[in-house]
Design a protein that fits this description.
Blueprint lengths: L4 H25 L7 E8 L8 E8 L6 E5 L8 H9 L5
């Protein structure tokens, strides 16, 4: 599918704002330390059984192996409950 450059730039700008918001919320919700790092990305998957779009949060906690937290929805729609459930295994309320 061909997208115009203008549409791709608009999507990138919208994602940048969502990425920043989700990064800040994840850091706060998981009470990450200053030395901990995280990366938030949205990926598309065309494989059968895979969600069309998935948000992946890489948690790089000091002194621990990097862990990928996957949420099967676009980053704009990720809730605090989604973050907790994916990262900690708790049930959303």
């Amino acid at each position: 599918m061909f997208h115009s450059l203008k549409a791709l730039r608009a999507r990138a700008n919208a994602q940048a704002a969502s990425r920043k918001d989700l990064t800040e919320r994840t850091r706060r919700i998981l009470a990450l330390a200053e030395e901990d790092a995280l990366s938030v990305n949205e990926i598309a998957c065309a494989d059968p059984g895979c969600p069309d779009v998935e948000t992946v949060i890489l948690l790089m906690l000091a002194g621990r192996p990097t862990r990928a937290v996957k949420i099967a929805k676009p980053m704009e729609t990720v809730t605090e409950a989604d973050i907790l459930e994916a990262a900690c295994g708790t049930e959303p309320r």
